[in-house]
Structure formats: structure tokens, C-alpha cells
Amino acid sequence: MQFEAPWGLHLKIMTFGGSLVCVGMPLYLTVSSRQPMDTVMFGLLQSPILLWLICLLLSVRGYTITPDHIVIHRLIWVTRIPLEDLQSFDFDQSALRQSIRYFGNGGIFAICGLYRHRRLGIFRAFVTDTRRSLMLRFQSRAIIISPDDPRRFVKTLLRSTDQLSRTVN
Known about the structure:
four-stranded antiparallel beta sheet
């Protein structure tokens, strides 16, 4: 079953602002420069565009539940999360608040990467709307996703893991 990854207001604002800074400013400074730029300065001005492109590639487009995986659809690839160790889930809109980002993207096209929260521990995020945050706890890790309908996602996930446990036993 496939689920969309709708953008929340926070993501829309961060993507718009980040795009202006990462793409708009370097282009404006390059075009408006009255003097020829040396290679180093030109490269420095263009590096935010590279950062923006990386964020675009890491964007989250949707989620699919298969019989044995959660598939996270990115722009040009997928990330597969095996369901075999799934232990619990929690609808936690505050999971990303007060989290420390160890590595990742805080809001240009997605909120994704490795985070740590005092109460929740270390987790990976694949989020586009923090109001739809769904924490999935596995035996050795946790992830947060934001499907368009978190409750329907959990119902589908429970049916899938029930089928998985029947095939394992």
C-alpha cells in the first residue's frame, strides 16, 4: 500500500527560504558582479547550489508498505526498512522538537537524517510534515516518518507485520 508524504507549513517555508539563499543569492551575485571572478570565488559562490541539489536528491516523496519492508521513496532511489524487528509505534508530533541533529537536513525538501532526543534516544527521520510524525521503534533503532494518513499507515503496517509473523512461525 502506498502513502503520500505531504509537505507541512514548516517544510514549505524552509524550502522556500533555503532555495532563495542557496540558489537565488549565488546566482544573483554571479550575474551582478561587475568584475570577472576568479575560479575559487566562483566555486565558493556555487557551493550553496550543490548543497541545495543534495537536499533535493534526499527529499522524501512517499512511503510504501510491502509484506516485509517499509519503502521510503526518495527522488531517484528508495530506502528500505525491514519490518522483522518492529516492536512498537507512537504518534508523536513533538519528536523532532528539542532534538539535536547529528547529521542531515533540517527542512529543505525534507527533514531527514540522524537525530537525538533526550527522551527518545537516537533516531533517523524521513519527515515532510511534523504534525503527522509517526515514530517506529525497532529492536536496534527508531525511525520517524510522516505519511499522509498515519493511522491508516499503522493499520496497514499491523496487517503486514501480522502476515510476516505468520510466515516466520
